[in-house]
Amino acid sequence: VQHLTLISMELHARTRRDLEPDPEFDPICALFYCLSSDVPLLNSDTTQMTGAIVIDKHFSSAE
Questions:
Q1: pLDDT digit string (tens) for 9-59?
Q2: 3-class SS at 31?
Q3: Backbone conformation region of residue 25, classed left if phi is above 0, alpha if psi is from -120 to 50, else beta
Q4: Which domain of life is it from (predicted)?
């Protein structure tokens, strides 16, 4: 038996004017993902999981 699990990911970066994104200068603002499987995912009864990680440039952690 063979099962297939896929992950799709999209990054959104802030760019400068009409330039292409440059990882040295342009920060990643958000990451969106989707996990999809033909069998239920681990510890779940669903075959798909979606989510987003969004960066807030105004947030600072004070540790």
A1: 999 988 888 888 888 988 899 999 999 999 998 888 999 999 999 998 777
A2: strand
A3: alpha
A4: Eukaryota
DSSP character at residue 25: T
55: three-class secondary structure by DSSP: coil
Q: How far apart are CA 26 and CA 53, in angstroms?
A: 17
CA distances from 13 to 31, 47, 51, 53, 55 (A): 9, 29, 17, 12, 10
Which tokens is 56 given? 């807030």
Label residue 17 left, alpha or beta by phi (over 0 means left) and psi (-120 to 50 means alpha): left
